[in-house]
Design a protein that fits this description.
With about 260 residues, this protein is α+β, with helices and mostly antiparallel strands. It folds into two domains: about 5-200, PAS domain (Beta-Lactamase, 2-Layer Sandwich), CATH 3.30.450.20; about 200-259, Arc Repressor Mutant, subunit A (Orthogonal Bundle), CATH 1.10.10.10. The chain has nine helices and seven strands. The chain has helices at about 10-20, 30-40, 65-70, 80-85, 90-110, 200-210, 215-225, 225-240, 245-255; strands spanning about 50-55, 60-65, 120-125, 135-145, 150-160, 170-175, 195. Strands 2-1-5-4-3-6-7 form a seven-stranded mixed beta sheet, sandwiched between helices. A hairpin with a 5-residue loop joins strand 3 and strand 4. The chain is globular and about 55 Å long. The relative contact order is 0.11.
């Protein structure tokens, strides 16, 4: 396994971002961790799944389950450094940049009406303890909100071994929720050939109307949203897919059966 000093610079940047979000005033809440164990422990663990809860203030994983069964790592081995080191070297810079952008966006959320206001879905390769790589699909969402400040306290990640379903080395990903427009993904432009973006349901609604030949003003009127919002979604779709214009976006939507 790679040592910390061998980490890709983008992974080091992710680690520094997480460190910056730490709150020295945050205290380990053993009662919360006990409740997490009771709450999540009651949930059945589906085959090939593992989960973890990351606390922003503490800057560490406060709960995890299933790493031993899926990846072969014992409980005492599971921490953020382990996650960094299990990224496949070819996937590491991409996953780190996506993670960093999503973490910053989630940290900026205040009083979300829905814990799924911002959800990241991404698949990539992870190293098992036996030295073999598997393809993992991870879904991450807000888990806990501070009642006084409205800030995100922790996130929940549900991961599944999808090696038998997806064998390609491309990285599929999706960001969904009304806050997703705030996610800064400029650092991904050099990796678009490796990425396969899957539009969110909201983005598909807009795409469907664009494919009908509607202008932004017409799409906005039909959906009851502002023209600015429509154009923001359009720009984000172009940036996330690496396409140049709406015509290419419409063609991709038909080719990939997005609508």
């Amino acid at each position: 396994m790679k040592k910390a000093g061998d980490l890709d610079r983008s992974v080091r940047s992710l680690r520094e971002t997480i460190r910056d979000l730490r709150d020295d005033r945050a205290e380990q809440n053993t009662d919360l961790e006990r409740k997490l164990d009771q709450l999540i422990g009651m949930m059945p663990r589906f085959p090939d799944h593992f989960i973890y809860v990351f606390n922003y203030g503490l800057g560490r994983i406060v709960y995890h389950r299933g790493f031993d069964e899926v990846l072969g790592y014992q409980d005492e081995e599971v921490d953020l450094e382990l996650l960094y080191n299990t990224y496949h070297p070819e996937d590491a810079p991409i996953i780190a940049r996506i993670n960093e952008a999503a973490i910053r966006a989630m940290a900026d959320l205040r009083n979300p009406h829905d814990l799924f206001s911002l959800t990241l879905t991404v698949d990539y390769r992870m190293l098992k303890k036996n030295g073999k790589y598997i393809k993992v699909l991870r879904q991450t969402a807000v888990f806990e909100i501070d009642q006084s400040s409205g800030k995100v306290i922790s996130t929940f990640s549900l991961c599944k071994d999808i090696s038998s379903i997806k064998t390609s080395t491309s990285i599929g990903w999706q960001i969904r929720g009304p806050e997703m427009a705030s996610v800064d993904l400029n650092g991904l432009q050099d990796y678009l050939s490796r990425l396969q973006y899957h539009p969110s349901p909201r983005e598909k609604e807009i795409l469907e109307r664009l494919c009908e030949g509607k202008a932004s003003k017409e799409v906005a009127a039909a959906m009851g949203i502002s023209v600015f919002t429509v154009n923001t979604h359009r720009r984000n779709l172009l940036k996330r897919t690496g396409l140049k214009n709406t015509a290419e976006l419409v063609k991709r939507a038909h080719d990939e059966d997005w609508i």
